[in-house]
From TrEMBL:
<feature type="transmembrane region" description="Helical">
    <location>
        <begin position="106"/>
        <end position="137"/>
    </location>
</feature>
<feature type="transmembrane region" description="Helical">
    <location>
        <begin position="452"/>
        <end position="471"/>
    </location>
</feature>
<feature type="transmembrane region" description="Helical">
    <location>
        <begin position="174"/>
        <end position="192"/>
    </location>
</feature>
<keyword id="KW-0812">Transmembrane</keyword>
<feature type="transmembrane region" description="Helical">
    <location>
        <begin position="143"/>
        <end position="162"/>
    </location>
</feature>
<feature type="transmembrane region" description="Helical">
    <location>
        <begin position="35"/>
        <end position="58"/>
    </location>
</feature>
<dbReference type="Pfam" id="PF13520">
    <property type="entry name" value="AA_permease_2"/>
</dbReference>
<feature type="transmembrane region" description="Helical">
    <location>
        <begin position="64"/>
        <end position="85"/>
    </location>
</feature>
<keyword id="KW-1133">Transmembrane helix</keyword>
<feature type="transmembrane region" description="Helical">
    <location>
        <begin position="422"/>
        <end position="440"/>
    </location>
</feature>
<feature type="transmembrane region" description="Helical">
    <location>
        <begin position="252"/>
        <end position="274"/>
    </location>
</feature>
<keyword id="KW-0472">Membrane</keyword>
<feature type="transmembrane region" description="Helical">
    <location>
        <begin position="305"/>
        <end position="332"/>
    </location>
</feature>
<keyword id="KW-0813">Transport</keyword>
<dbReference type="GO" id="GO:0022857">
    <property type="term" value="F:transmembrane transporter activity"/>
</dbReference>
<dbReference type="InterPro" id="IPR002293">
    <property type="entry name" value="AA/rel_permease1"/>
</dbReference>
<feature type="transmembrane region" description="Helical">
    <location>
        <begin position="212"/>
        <end position="232"/>
    </location>
</feature>
Amino acid sequence: MPAEPEVTHLDDAEHLQVLGYDDSFNRSMSLWANFALGFTYLSPLVGVYSLFAVALTIGGPPSIWWIVIVGCGQLLVSLVFGEIVSQYPIHGGIYPWARRLWGRRYAWMAAWVYIWAMIVTITAVAEFGAGFVASLFDLELTPGVNLAITLGLLLLAFVFNFSGTKTLARVAQIGLAAELIGVIGLGLYLLIFQRKHDFGIFFDTMGVEGDGSYAVAFLGAALAGLFLFYGFEACGDVAEEVSNPAKRIPRAMMMTILVGGVSALFSFGGYVLAAPNLEAIVSGEDADPIPGILADTLGPVGAKIFLLVAITAFISCVLSLQAAASRLLFSFARDGMIPGHTWLAKVSPRNKVPTNALIVACTVPAIISVLIFLNGNLLVPITSFAVLGIYLAFQMVVLASLRQRAKGWRPAGPFSLRGAGVVVNILALAYGVFAIVLIARPGESGDVFADWVVLIGLGIVLVTGLAYLFIARPDRKSSAPEGDAIAVAEAIRTRTGATPVRR
């Protein structure tokens, strides 16, 4: 095999200097805090609770296997991202990665789609969390109550984020503990002490296929995993606030996928095995079964305690989403690529956080929440759009990475897949295209708008993004580096004095 430079490590400030930026943030986030941020963004508790009934209705108990399938696919994506962030440990994640791997206009579209997907995700998580708060206080969840609680959750997360990186890290770690108690702890309890079915139930379709093929039903249940496994990229969104990010963030991303996947399996599996009337859930008669399962297995007091744990997890999830979105907006603005970039790129001298970007990451979801208050039917379509947009933005980065590899790029960060990088990159892209097709498939209700609303939403975002790009030409206003993956890799190797090794 030909010689390949051994990847060594620059210190954080020098690494940023090579990439063209100054070290202007407090690096107070540890590996565990960074992992907590990604894990609470991914939030298996939120994902499983939101999709449990839908997945069982469509695919029956075997829909649990989508957690394994999607987890493996997204692990491949996280490995690709790991090599990228190890060379480019800078704020913003998707945007700077796409820019440095491809170019300004390509990065503009990736970031435009991703920003809107994240903003909508913040809204959706806060909306779903409102139901838990209402249940805890025995409030009737009217549209007005739902709006008030949603706005309260958004504001609370903003206050925590505004307080600085240390507060963000602490709350994320508390959220991590809540998630682990709420998914692994509860899941194990249900599996061991409250099991009402045997494990063979996960191979029993329970007739969901009707007279057709179960393969169609199983593909329809893919959202059980697809809506769950994203958030790990948030570990890279705050790269400039992490100590030794080139080594730690790839590990945090993979930990997020692995621990999140195991947690989701325990949670989903525990609910299925403990369900007192699984047939009613699969048939669709019980559209919100988890409260009933909790009341049956934990009792009234135990159910209230779980609600407290769940609310903590939801708050932490909104907090992590806001933090990731604000860093992406800051990164976009720092390069002059978005309207109001001078204002959005400001960093608080006291708290060392992008305060104006945080304001946007709180205010726009609040506005969308008001629109949902006016039309409650908007929540499910915008949630579906959020997931599709995030997967599309992910794969734009994966594609850009493969393109650079074809040009001869060998990632120069301390995390390296070495010779396996190309194979992993191709498999990650193939998985991503498969996932996008599954998410984007139109429905079969017969209502044209309802069946195509997710693609319509994505089309609007793409068209408006392209229109702004070619009319306002923000790419011409930015002189930040682009398409420099090979040059930066060589610069890093030159600075570290990397020596060739034989493989």
